[in-house]
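Support reply, case 0932

Customer input (verbatim):
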Amino acid sequence: MDARQEFCLLDVREPWEVVQASLPGSLCIPMHEIPSRLEELDASAEIIVMCHVGGRSQRAAEFLAAHGFGRVCNLRGGIAAWAREFDPGLDPG
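Our regenerated output:
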């Protein structure tokens, strides 16, 4: 983010989780909807996938990679780690 490089921050949490806390500019697609909403994602873009603590986002990143998305990574620790490390005022629940 600090480097101002373009990427897609894909939040795979459920809508009720996103209401509690979210990161600006993120694209919210619940994990179970990803297979039916692949067309909303650019397979050539860098995609950083996040969830609450990193488990769901890792599975989603693996799914995307298996479906031709070549620049995908997981935000380890999810929004909970982000809050601890970068934004202590954020309460991800």
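We compared this against your earlier run and they match. Two observations from our side: Strands lie at 8-11, 27-28, 47-50, 72-74. The chain has one domain: 8-85. Please reopen the case if you see a mismatch on your end.
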